[in-house]
Design a protein that fits this description.
The chain is of the alpha+beta class. It has seven helices and four strands; from the N terminus they run E-H-E-H-E-E-H-H-H-H-H. The structure holds glutathione.
Length: 216
Amino acid sequence: MKLYTYEESGNSYKVRLLLSFLDLSYEAIDVDLMQDLQHQPEHLAVNPRGEVPALVDGDVELVDSMAILLYLATKYDKRRTWFPNTPETMADVAQWLAFAASWVQYGVFSARAILSFGIAANGMPHDFQANVEEGQIRGRHSLEILDAHLNERQWLALGHPTIGDIAVFPYVALAPMGDISLTPYPAVEAWIERFKQIPGFMPIKGLDDPNYRRSA
Ligand SMILES: N[C@@H](CCC(=O)N[C@@H](CS)C(=O)NCC(=O)O)C(=O)O
């Protein structure tokens, strides 16, 4: 199995987390986003969207973290705990996959991408003057939603961690890199600490250092 990944990409990190939780081995192919390698012909042949992550597993070629999480969790998790297989449980988890791909991606993700990496990402030219405030406003609103939800439960869906938690975790935990404090959201902070205790968890740069990439 080959994973096209960049070490500071939270979307790649989602996939690396599930591979680690499932104890699956793979070959990591580094695509340096800071050198714009995602837009070079070699990578565009793998992912025409010019993004990481992408996965090749035998004849299966996939782009997008959500698709890859779904594939790995249904193919390799024999116990089906990460993505259970009843209509109700699948739909419950899917609500959070969708939240990660919308509110989170265009909220806390954007604020971090603009402030810490200087790029708007996802199809925008690298010199585009993106509006960080928009990401921060949507980001804080998404954290309010998450905090209220997690105030009543330990995990986003069902009574145990699922790919819904994996999909939401990276950019929420890295929100301080986009100048969005997590302090007003204690249930979110507690969930982050809980998530870090999952066997096989590994950190990503910036997780415990809001000034990472911005300290002068
Ligand atoms: N919907 C995609 C988004 C992937 C994405 O945003 N990838 C970022 C890194 S985390 C990327 O490769 N950005 C490069 C660019 O936009 O130039 C997914 O979930 O995988």
